[in-house]
Amino acid sequence: METTDNSRPLWPAGHRAALCLTFDVDGLYGEANSRGQDETYWVSQTAYDATGTERLLDLLADTGVQATFCWVGRVAEERPDLVGRAVAKGHEIALHTWDHRPYNRLPDDEQRVDMRRTFDTLSAIAGTPPVGHKTAGWRYNAATHEIAQEMGLSWVMDEPGGDLPYMIRPETTGPPLVQLPPSRFFDDYTYFMDQMLTPQQTFECWREDLDVLRAEGKLMCLTLHPFVSGRPGPSRAVAHLIDHAIDAGDIWIARADHLARWWLEQK
Ligand SMILES: [Zn+2]
User: What local confidence, expressed as pLDDT, does residue 178 receive?
Assistant: First the structure.
């Protein structure tokens, strides 16, 4: 899956590894789709999403780091002011479906309509057309990436096929897409929702990952959620990891679109 040409530089000069922070702004639609709309205990937790987004935007501003926000279209439409704040702070806005339905259960044409509607809405609110896509809950199928390619996107973030970006070309005559590998191990939901770990324990897991990947010259691609990592204590796990990466001095902390562009230019 992952191939590396040893003659090419993996990262821009001065950097030996890379870190990508992505924030999935699901609103209530993630929990409503995965657990059911009547699961009010879980769905109600997501009412914190806007507060968490504001805290995380402040945290990123404090550290001067730029990140990627994968925004559910319907949530962006409900709170365009938050999208505007993220754009004003230099963050990337990417597609995360219209209302967090799993694409692996949608017919191809419904996926296409869903992705296009999200693209149009985010383009209008953000003022720039998105170039990346992350499927809701990493529930995708072959059509998902064909449609992303057809729409002219440059990156997707669905398949953990290694520790480096890699090219995919779903339609062989079309342009390449960069797959930026996510991981359940790099997902705040795993640590704070599936389990209930402390911010320190979560930070330690991620620090170990980042240290190994830094030594190997690779990429860590985090998936974070404002209603999870935007909570007071858990936000410290993110802050500690950013501080750790900055202190290392040679980790490229980059938006997904910048990583994808770099990867495409080096091919
Ligand atoms: Zn999501």
Answer: 98
Q: How far apart, in whole angstroms, are the C-alpha atoms of residue 200 and residue 240? A: 9
CATH of the domain at 107: 3.20.20.370
State the residue range of the domain holding 84.
17-266
- CB atoms inside a 10 Å sphere around CB 237: 25
pLDDT along the chain (267 residues), means of 10: 64 97 97 93 95 98 97 98 98 98 96 98 98 96 96 97 96 95 97 96 98 98 98 98 98 98 91
Give 138 Cα–ligand 1 centroid separation in angstroms: 8
Domain count for the chain: 1
Measured over the CA atoms of residue 90, residue 259, residue 188 and residue 97, the dihedral's sign is: positive
Strands, DSSP E only, in 26-91? 68-71
Could you tell me the distance, in angstroms and rounded to a whole number, from the CA of residue 8 to the centre of ligand 1?
34
45 C-alpha to ligand 1 centroid (Å): 14
Please report whether residue 62 resides in a domain: yes
Going from the Cα of 167 to the center of ligand 1, the distance in angstroms, rounded, reads 23
194 Cα–ligand 1 center, Å: 15
Distance CA(151)–CA(188), nearest Å, equals 30
Q: Cα(28) to centroid of ligand 1, in Å?
A: 10
Q: 264 CA distance to ligand 1 centroid (A)?
A: 26
